[in-house]
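help with this:

***
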Amino acid sequence: MARRTRSTSQNGSHETPMPRRRATTIAPGGRLVLTESAANSRLFVYMLGNFLHRLERERRDVYFGDLDLARVAEIIGTAGVEPGMRDEAFRNQHRNFDSVVGVEGQRAVNATSIAGATGIPRETVRRKLQRLLKLGLIVEKGRARYILKPGALQHPDRQAAFARGLQQTVHFMNECLEQGVLQWVPAGKTKRGSGNKPAEVTPVVPTEFRKARFAPRGPAVPAARR
């Protein structure tokens, strides 16, 4: 069944049918699960808080200390490729930043949609959009509808920031495994929503988790006591 999506041009806007795309995934060899123990709740929240703090510090650096500017830019970027990322061919083509997603490959969004997605007042969103236009991070695709400027994400400073964010994420996941807050359960040992207690399964840490070791950026954050 086709769904209708709005597309725009400089001369106006019109509705065009767009086939519904289904997200496709590769069956994993297992999954990370939360250890079912109330004793881990405080530890997990503490570790998550440190992780989010480090990410927000990165975002402030990239967006001149303006987190609302970051949220608007990130929503435009995420919404722009969301339809494509549901398509296996598109996802494989643009899996990494070696490829640039062009104007036609992105879905444009307007200030109202961004305000609804972020909770930021629409007038504030409009001011942030004007600033992003001046910075050269976004462009208009039709009247008052915006996408990321093709190639903007490939800037060396942004690539370095993305790399640090990925390192922080892997560091957080490894720390959760080491502290017993998360554990790896091989496929077939437990089912999503089955009610099985993963604590009864001996954790098996995959090779990629053992090899990917990264140190936090900036001042050291005290590790959780064992």
